[in-house]
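Handoff note, outgoing to incoming analyst
You'll be picking up this chain. Sequence as last confirmed:
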Amino acid sequence: MGGGSYSSESFCSYAKTRGVSYDFSTDRVIGHAYKSRTLKSSLNPKNKIRECCNSKEHPNTVPVILALDVTGSMGKACDECASALSSIMKELYNRFDDVELMVMGVGDFDEGDEAPLQVSQFESDVRIAEQLDDIWMEHGGGGNRWESYTAPWWYGLYRTRLDCYDKQGNKGIIITMGDEPLNPSLPKSVMLEYFGEANGKDDNQYSFDTPSLYENASKKFDIYHISVNDPGNAYGRRGPNYTSEVDESFRKVLGQNYSISTVEGLKDKICECIEDSISYRSSGKKKMNENKKGVITW
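Most recent structure output, in case you need it:
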């Protein structure tokens, strides 16, 4: 997947088919709403590998995974990402060649969500908007104080094939967005049942606890997380003790790759994360993801 290229006109035409408006002055969709009420087969990751392949059209692909928390109170942030997607792609293609976007919907594997991870293809044109619109806002999750933010790391590590990594030695990029603390692990049996088998690995070859999963996934991806600060979500309404808990849980793993944004600032923050990763790729330097003490700890 990943053929085609971005244009404002294609996004405008697509918006009209969805019954919403498109503002060319801002490259934003007006009146977006998620309408899916179940997991779409096209986003079901069971027994599937997603590929980001180089081509004549895109010879130096930059795979970017945008993973949105679709539980509880994150609806406003998800709507913003959908409304601003055209603007985000335009900004990226003005700065960088060959960016390929994948979108994911992140839920909670611990709390029995029906669709705890929804996974699109890698795309470089309006098809990514079509797949984002198909994501089911399940509004699941529960009382365990986190969501499965490391599930995109797991899927990216074990269920994607990236030409940039396999053939050119360059990393992809994962950006997760949410309002709760980082989960300490993923439930092995639930994960393997949900994802099925797609690459012939023995169960014992997978990582599920967050420290070891990060250690392995960060060899293939630069990993970022954005906590969304909004009065309507957990991060924005639960007070300073809670926000400190969230911040500390991510910073001690991701270090400088953790950041905070308002809903309105998500477009710029997403672009900043991608620019940070690509700047290291272009310089030929190795990007180090260290915490304040210079080590990865949990």
